[in-house]
Amino acid sequence: MSSFPLHWEEEVQSLDQLPDHCPFSVEEIEQYLWRCHYHWMLDEKPMHYKVQGVVAERTENERRFWLYQVSDETGREWYVVVGAGKSPLEPAMKMRRWMYGKENVLGHTPDRFLRDEIDEQHAADAR
After folding, report:
1. In angstroms, rounded to a whole number, what is the distance separating the alpha carbons of residues 65 and 59?
2. 3-state class of 64 per DSSP?
3. Per-residue pLDDT tens over the stretch 3-29
4. Strands 7-8 and 49-60
5. Where are the alpha helices (DSSP H) in the chain?
6. End-to-end alpha-carbon separation of the chain, Å?
7. pLDDT digits (tens, 9 = 90+) for 67-84
C-alpha cells in the first residue's frame, strides 16, 4: 500500500475549538499530495491528484475527522484523512490540524477506511 507521511502543524492560533468545517482547503490537500508524490514516489513521474470531496466525517475524543476521496492521473483511488483536535499527549496545548494520504488498495468503503484510521490513532495514543 502506498501512503504519504503525516503533515502535522504545531499549535494553530485560529483553532481554539473543534472546527465545523475542514481546516485545509482542497488546494492545500492537492499541493500536499503533489509534494509527497514528487518526494516519495521517485519511480513515477510527478503527477497531480484530483480531490473529489468529503466522503465521511466523524467526531471522537475532542477530535474531528474528514475523509476525502482522491484519484491520481493513473486512476488509483486514494483517501486523505484530515483531522483537527487536541493532542492526547499534551492536553494543555491548543488545537492542531493534520492530514495524510493512503492509497485504498483494499477497496474499503469510506466509513470502514475512516473507522480503521481512527482506531489506529487511538492505538498510537495509548502507546
Report:
1. 6
2. strand
3. 887 777 665 555 556 778 898 999 999
4. unpaired
5. 26-40, 110-126
6. 24
7. 999 999 999 999 999 998
